Amino acid sequence: MSTVNYYGFRTPPVDTQKRRSHIYEVIWKIVQYVSLTFFSLFSVVPIVSCVITAFKTDEEYQRTNVMSLPENPLNFRNFIKAFVTADMGRAFLNSVIVMLCVLFISVVIGTQLAFILNRFKFKGNKLIRNLFLVASILPAVAMQVTVYNIMSSLGLVNHLYGYILMMCGTDVISIYIFIQFIENIPVSLDESAIIDGANYWVVYWKVILPLLKPAIVTSCILKGVAVYNEYYCANLYLMDKKLHTMATSLYTFVGPMGSQYNLICAGVIISLLPALIVFIFCQKQIYSGITEGAVKE
Amino acid sequence: MSLELVKWIKSKKGQQTLIIFMFTLIPLLLLFVFTYLPFAEMVKFSFMKLKYTTPAENREFVGLKNYIDVFSRDDCFSALKLSLYYIVGALIQLALALYLATILSFKVRLGNIYKGMIFFPYLISGIAIGFIFKFFYTRGFVFDTILGWCGFDLENLPYWLKDQSINNWSLVATSIWRYFGQNMVLFLGAIMSIDPTLYESAALDGANRWHQFLHIILPGIKPVLTLNLILSVTGSLSAFEQPFVITGGSNGTGTYFVIMNTIAHTTQKVGLASAMAVVLLVIIMVCTAFQKMIMNQLFPNDELIIKRAKLRAVREHKRRLTSNNSVRFNRR
Description:
The complex is a heterodimer. Chain A is mostly helical. Chain A folds into two domains: 14-75, no CATH class; 87-295, MetI-like fold. Chain A contains 15 helices and two strands. Chain A has helices spanning 16-54, 58-63, 77-85, 88-119, 125-137, 140-153, 160-169, 173-183, 187-195, 200-211, 213-229, 232-237, 246-249, 261-281, 283-295; strands at residues 3-4, 10-11. In chain A, strands 1-2 form a two-stranded antiparallel ribbon. In chain A, helix 3 packs across helix 14, helix 4 packs antiparallel against helix 11 (213-229) and helix 8 packs antiparallel against helix 11 (213-229). The longest helix of chain A is centred in the N-terminal third of the chain and has 39 residues, at 16-54. The radius of gyration of chain A is 28 Å and the shape is flat. Chain B has 14 helices and two strands. By secondary structure, chain B is mainly alpha-helical. The interface between A and B is large, with 96 and 98 residues.
């Protein structure tokens, strides 16, 4: 079907099939971008509304609608006040200490245990695996009913090291990540090292551990996020104000300050800034950590 | 004697025993102290009447009374009904995550930015989420304002956290908000590990996107999807964080664990709380056993499949990292 256009030239026949697929293509693109935009907004709006409110003065917060932009977008007074009131400098330090210790300990014991479980056949190997498997099913909140009792009888309540120990003790997922990774390291590497005169410690230290680096990164990311954000146990076992972590420092705003949302929002934004910064710089590692870590749950 | 010991230690067998002992002692000790000892205590406490402060000799043995209470009190076992909300929420969450993962798996401009924005809530701590959403749902604040822009009248809007007909849905929405990005990343990883040549041959056969989704993507991620579907049941039974941090369980939003937590740490009825925990743990274990059976029925060697899929995902991921992250196969 050829037509004559306005200028009197013959236009080539239109391939209707092609045109239809072109229309589908356009509709598909629209659906794609509309859904993505909608759900991105859905994810971001609650946080953005907090950011907006955090920049408002008390008077402005009372007077204006929460979604109207702040008059002075460089008003950092709430941030400073929240930082000081909740003693967030100290809280951040505590969080970093807890995180570094927990990551270090759980990487060391996790890789060692995985090394043993994967490389040695002995009575009890299966039993140990099953013990950890069952432990991963038990929900943490339920366990805290009695863990609390044990922590206090061991004198571990209100000490950073007690909390650190507990956080290491309830770690199961990273062990699975390590076991999965070790399975893919050929045993022949161990054997040749042993033939060269290495003992098992050297095999672990010089052969296995360096090759486990990707798994260590993965588990540190998953565990790091979990530890930094943990608030339930931290609130239970670190009641002393000086021992507050970044997450529990937000409890300062519960109570009399409960309706000063411009201050609270500033606190919330400060607490999630470190996560945001790490996220921006390690996106790829975080995504692959999620993909690898969640599969074996 | 000691010479023999030294000899044994130097032997291969001795070396093995030594390293096994050295490397398993601490993790097993931690596992025992923080998981199995509390578990045993919990079972013991569930037959007693006590507070945290009660000295050991004053603990009173009450037999099955706590268990009878769990089922007869109207605030305990019946709270499990709220799990239904969270199961529905989990289904919506998985469907959304799958939809967005599929969209993102095709070529999209700014795909990484969308992905990042949708994923980020997963990295926020529970307590911060509590504050954000208390603020978000307050009368006349963020959510009401946005609905106002869309033409809703404030007068007709319910109190999102107080109105019993809606508040559980508000909390479920929060849960979806928090986790659907994480699920999306998970599914996207699985989709990306599907052999890209499959799409090419499908496109040659004239398959459109829906066909590609139905016949390539869906079968490719079926194990991961099923696993997550099944896990959402146990996850919903133990729903805790959102009601705990946002409403504290008030106005009929107290899920089973929120109520257990209050009973344990506020009213200090440790015996009753332990019985509640034991009851739910038994339910969860039964569910988990069922899940294992279902998975084994559906995917006889699912572990193998998942492992292979994961390996492919890792390889694909590394390839992408090394090739300057610009390679993104175009599936048209």
